[in-house]
Design goal:
It is a single chain. By secondary structure, the protein is α/β, with parallel strands linked by helices. The protein folds into 2 domains: about 120 residues, 3-Layer(aba) Sandwich (Rossmann fold); about 120 residues, Rossmann fold. It contains 8 helices and 10 strands. It has a 10-stranded mixed sheet with strand order 3-2-1-4-5-10-9-6-7-8, sandwiched between helices. It is globular and about 60 Å long.
Length: about 270
Amino acid sequence: MDFQIKNILVGFDNSKSAQIALIKAADTAKRFDAKLHAVYVHREGKTSPEEIGKEVFRIGSESNLDIEYLVKHGKVYNEVIALERELGADMLIIGTHGSDGWQPFWAGSNAFRIASSANCPVITIQETTKSVPLSDILLPLDDDDTTRQKVPYAAMMAKAFQATVHIYCVSKNSGKSVEARLKAYGNQSEKFLNERGVKTTMNSSFGVEVSKSILNYSKELRAGLVMMMADTESKGLIMGSYSQDIVNNSKVPVMIMHSRDLAISGAVGY
């Protein structure tokens, strides 16, 4: 099953992380021939919509791309999620920073709630994100039954950016049964990707601290994207500990997907 990215939504407030997010979103939109929307949720006493708009159009002009600029009023989380559903967005890209961003133990932050509740994949970008080309994608596979549901999106992103996908079977557990199961996941994922013309590598680590191991491997690879499942609980507001830790500490963009996403559920076919 192949997917199309037709609408990309970016939350924009002219912070450093938001500027990086919009620039990367413009590149992504051009690669998918997608429509790019930038939304600014204005609050009293904050920068005027006109000033924010000037920066949106500047980035659009430099990227040679028309960006639809939208202004909303209200709570950031509510407005961004409502617009994501209204547009039928296929991807949401947000910068994370300060008290409005995704910081450790800041469970009520806007970025945290948006990434946990969106119906589409969300890419989070820290203001400390290094400018690394998206030529290498890190695809961790863990013990969870939903872990392989992100593989089709890995194929989609790799084909758009002509990137190599680095499959990483990783678990805090060890033993023959765990290693056999994850290596089977890895082999299945590798076959799926290779059949679609995507270059891959495969590595594994067992009996390790998962988030730390993923972060270290992403640095070693100089990865341009790390792909994680959100592992949300029923209310959609609790992010799985591994994913949350990765987003809090990753210096490269993190793409977060949900097992409830109907576009990817069961798409891998195994």
